[in-house]
C-alpha cells in the first residue's frame, strides 16, 4: 500500500463527473490497484475513489499545467467501464509504501455477526425467490455483508446491523455506488437490515431508494420472541 500526502486536484470522468479543487489530501493506492482520495474530515469516507480492476499511470503534465505548478498526473482508469480518475499533483508532502500482507478479514462478534449468519441462511426474510451469492462480498472500501440475486437476475446488497442508524445507511450507499459501477452486477439495489432501525435512518434510506427490513433475532434463531405474529 502506498500512502501519499499531496497538494492536488482531482477530476472523475465517466458515467458521472466530479471535481475536487486544489487542496492537501491523502492518496491511498492499494495493492489491488484501487485509489482512494481522503481529506482530514469526513471520518472514513473517501472524497472520491476508483475501485478495481483498474490501473494507475503516471504522466508528465502538459505545458500549461506545468506552468501552473503541476508536477505530474496520476491517471487511474477502470479496466471495464473506462471511467477515469485524474489527480494533478502540485506538491508531495509525504510518500511511503508498506507491505500489509494478507488480511484475515473482518471478524464481527456478538449479535451482529449472528444476524449476518442467520440472514445468509434465511434470505427469504429479505424477499421471496432470493439466492445468496456471497457473504462479506469485497469492495475497495470494505466488504458488503450479503450479496443476493433476485429471480430476475438483479443484484441486492444487504447491510446488517444490530441497531440501524444514519451511518449504516451512508455506509450501504457507498457500497452501492461502488458495486453499481461493475457491469456484471449493475443495477444494484440495497437493503438495510437491523433489529432496530432509527426513524431518521428510515427516512434517509427511503430517500436513497434503499429498503429497510427489521429483523426478529429471536425468531430467526428459532426462539419465540414473545411478539404477536399472524403466523
From TrEMBL:
Residues 111-231 form the Endonuclease NucS C-terminal domain. It is found in: Cytoplasm. The keyword Amino-acid biosynthesis does not apply. The keyword Cytoplasm applies. Its EC number is 3.1.-.-. Gene3D superfamilies: 2.70.180.20, 3.40.1350.10. Keywords: Cytoplasm, DNA-binding, Endonuclease, Hydrolase, Nuclease. GO terms for molecular function: DNA binding; single-stranded DNA endodeoxyribonuclease activity. Residues 2-104 form the Endonuclease NucS N-terminal PH-like domain. InterPro entries: Endonuclease_NucS, NucS_C, NucS_N, NucS_N_sf, tRNA_endonuc-like_dom_sf. Belongs to the NucS endonuclease family. This is Endonuclease NucS. It comes from Microbacterium aurantiacum. The lineage of its organism: Bacteria, Bacillati, Actinomycetota, Actinomycetes, Micrococcales. The gene is nucS.
